[in-house]
Predict the 3D structure of the following.
Amino acid sequence: MRFLVVGGGAREHAVAAALHRSGAEVVVASANANPGLDAIARRAVRTDPNDGPRLAGLAREERVDVAVIGPEAPLAAGVADALRAHGVAVVGPDRAAARIESSKLYCRELLERRRVGGQPKWVAPRTVEEVDRAVAEFGRPFVVKPDGLTAGKGVWVQGSDFTDAKDGGMYAKSLLVQGGRALLEEKLDGEEFSLMAFVTDSGVYPMPAVQDFKRALEGNAGGNTGGMGSYSQRDHLLPFLSADDRDRALAILVRSVDAMRAEGLAYRGILYGGFMLTADGPLLLEFNARFGDPEGINVLTLYEEGDFGALLAGVANGRVDPNLLEFRLRSTVVKYLVPPGYGDRPRSGGLLTLDAGAIESAGVHVLYGSVEAAGPATVRLTSSRGIALVGEASAIHEASHRVESALAFVKGEYYVRHDIGTKDDLARRWEHVRRLRVPGAKTSPLPLSVAAPGAPPSSAGAPETLLG
Ligand code: AMP
Ligand code: GLY
């Protein structure tokens, strides 16, 4: 089978590598050259990934069976519509259904209209006066979100991105003045997780849960990014996430797909729910209409034994064989190597030299993101996320340790979050959720870094999977 993969980042490299492992042929269409994709593609074409007619022409010329759309922008631009109009089966929703990601307002309104549940309190003011009223009425910390796509960087959270409610209000007003819409949402306390599913006519098929690290700097400081790294746990849950929590999140995904169907929108692709696990269970932060980056890298690393080509062809054609949903029972950790200053003022152009053989023999995979080839074993960083290193092991912290060991084989200037998947970080997150669940602790959760007087050490009672 022959696939067209649209997009040129590490997520698309992971998709193409999983297809390649299953014996499929891959044609790549991306704006940038990607050394990883170039190495496995039968043909790699430089083109605007948002140009539907051009991609439909390429799909015909190359006789591709199925197209897989990696990033959100082509989905929002209607690339899936153009491909389907030319008879190409596609993993990725049409523009109308992709609004579940490309318009946060559409998403919230749809879920409210169809009584899906699992939403925080939200309001979408239309005028600056309504912003003032909403801020006054919220009466507790809130979050401001632009309606449209912002590559994960437009959301402002009170306490992290602004302190005074007035400043949040000013930000919301500035979005309105620029002609857009803004949402104000109650700020939820809890732990975030991502639950992705293959969605097609025959059902909704979940993948292992993943936790993404969105903030640029260690200790979750700095601005929101597309994601600095992520981990998954060998039982496909997370240290703080029970099977019941996961099932409640999955029910929100399923009801949302039903809501779209009830409004005449078919969905064949990946649906990614970004959730906050709160004292009241999982609540939806956002939907994405694609694999997460980096979360897709975690789950695709676990897909080795099944026929990934057949699985994606099933999604694109409306019927998935459940026997193809085979994710290995291993923990994974992804860490992105990014240019110094990433998240604020990235310094592009730095060279990285990788001993890929030594990295692979340390049990770590290399996936290429936004980098240019610059000689044998050398790449040049751009202003975006450069190289994803993926470690796997039985326990999460072991997988993290593997990635750390592999860093010895990367020379050059880069930034990486060393705290992703460490025992300390996992224990803090587990403890955070434990405290939220203590009755009466809902409104005043302890800061993650502060131990309660007389509280047991943060890892006491932590599950075996956490401490490995
Ligand atoms: P989004 O693009 O909606 O996922 O928002 C980006 C990030 O902002 C999320 O990953 C969260 O870290 C944070 N965030 C979004 N909505 C909320 C909320 N209602 N409460 C707390 N944090 C939020
Ligand atoms: N890692 C978050 C995203 O893919 O949007």
